[in-house]
Amino acid sequence: MKAVKYKVLRNDPVADGVYDLVLSGDTSAFTAPGQFLNITVDGLYLRRPFSVCSYGGDAVRVLYKVVGEGTKKMTALRPGDAVDALTGLGNGFDAGRAGESPVLIGGGIGTPPVYSLARELVKRGVRPAVYLGFNSSADVVLAAEFVEMGVVPVVATADGSLGEKGFVTDVIDPAAGSYYYACGPVPMLKAVVSLMRIPGEVSLEERMGCGFGVCEGCAVRTTRGILRVCADGPVFKAEEVIW
Predict the structure, then answer these.
(1) CATH number of 95-202
(2) What is the pTM of this model?
(3) Residues forming CATH 2.10.240.10 domain(s) in the chain
(4) Which class does domain 2-89 fall in?
(5) What is the average pLDDT across 51-72?
(6) Residue 112 confidence class, pLDDT cut points 50, 70, 90
(7) For residue 209, is pLDDT > 90?
(8) CATH of domain 204-243
(9) DSSP letters spanning 107-132
């Protein structure tokens, strides 16, 4: 974990209520896709945790959805503004488990860490199969950037306005692939774990207080006991989580 002062390079709307925030500064604390950072929001006591979409050099990218007072305030950030953050938090995906044909599954704003993992796998010469689920075409993020990477995602929307109609679990072959990685809302993750017939990892979303394991406000039940999503996760082996 490292405290970093960033400068805003970009903070633009890219989907319905979703903003693309790019920060300039030290990214050395990030070591694996799936880690997160905790951002201070002016006037609010608790930091806000966000999954990282990409990192490297002197830039880190976050996609966030406006869901409350903190994220609403963040939409006012402009290029050149300063942002205080705790970086390199949590344990990310284990890309070494991918095998020859990994499957990546993202749901809604859970797509950014899946995109980060895809970038890492492609660097290693591995082409994953990617499945993305959204409520509608207005919510779709990063699909075009997967294509630019050379990985064409299968997109499902609940209302059928883009790609396949239905949930992301409707378009996945549960037995195909060597290993899977998933991030998204809890109902989606629960459905994915019940569906898949190959081993995998899931990245959990939970409300957090401190973000680094002190307050124990993001506890989750696992086969290893009560663990903290921020410090012991957010990525867990799929079979560990007790839903």
Answers:
(1) 3.40.50.80
(2) 0.95
(3) 204-243
(4) mainly beta
(5) 96
(6) very high
(7) no
(8) 2.10.240.10
(9) EGGGHHHHHHHHHHHHHTT---EEEE
